[in-house]
Amino acid sequence: MEELNTGRRPKKEKKEESPEDAIDPEFFVRVSFHKFLAISLGLALYAFLCFHPSPESYLDRMGGPGQRLQYLRENYMIHMRIGMFIAILLHIIEALYAIKLATQLGLTQETIQKWAIQTGMMGYSSLQDLIKYHDEKAIAEISIGDN
After folding, report:
1. Which of 10, 27, 120, 133 is the most exposed, having the fewest neighbouring CB atoms within 10 Å of its CB?
2. Could you give the residue ranges of the DSSP H alpha helices within 18-76?
3. 21 and 136 in contact (C-beta within 8 Å)?
4. Is the backbone of residue 8 left (phi > 0), alpha (psi -120 to 50) or beta?
5. pTM score over 0.85
6. In the chain, where are the structural domains located?
């Protein structure tokens, strides 16, 4: 007997998840040493300029760059401090976003804490790896769901 066309699409078989599509609950990528060093030293110098009571003796030893930093300190102190607090606030927001993404991925609590601490310290340099991983897994889920 012939099959009737009911206008429905035939059910597609679900593909099995390949091991590379599965989410690793321990996924964590450390920031490279060069990024870590640059960001740490940059934030430390910025905080030193903003909050040290008298860095003039240190800045004099730095030559030309020290003179430029001294000029910024003398003429734009309020702007520099506002910038420092904005930088701190952005790192906190990025750390909270890292917690949200890691939780959505189903990572372990320890791994979520690692992402939060690293992103809080290093900012977007850390967060970009987690965003990339999250997007790859979201695309993999969509392609699995369509089949």
Report:
1. 10
2. 33-51, 56-60, 64-75
3. no
4. beta
5. no
6. 33-146
Q: Please give the pLDDT value at position 93.
A: 97
Q: pLDDT, tens digit, for every residue of 38-91?
A: 999 999 999 999 988 877 778 888 888 888 988 988 999 999 999 999 999 999
pLDDT at 2 exceeding the cut of 60: no
CA 47 – CA 64 distance, rounded (Å): 20
Phi-psi region of 14 (alpha: psi -120 to 50; beta: other; left: phi over 0): beta
- Cβ–Cβ under 8 Å, residues 104 and 130: no
SS3 20: coil
94-98 — which CB contacts under 8 Å span 24+ positions?
Answer: 94/119, 94/120, 94/123, 94/124, 94/126, 94/127, 95/119, 95/120, 97/127, 98/126, 98/127, 98/130
The mean per-residue pLDDT over the stretch 17-25 comes to: 67
Distance of CA 99 to the CA centre of its chain: 10
DSSP state of 9: P
Give the mean pLDDT of the chain: 84
Q: How far is CA 70 from CA 62, 67, 120, in A?
A: 10, 5, 28
Backbone angles phi, psi at 49, to 5 degrees: -65, -40
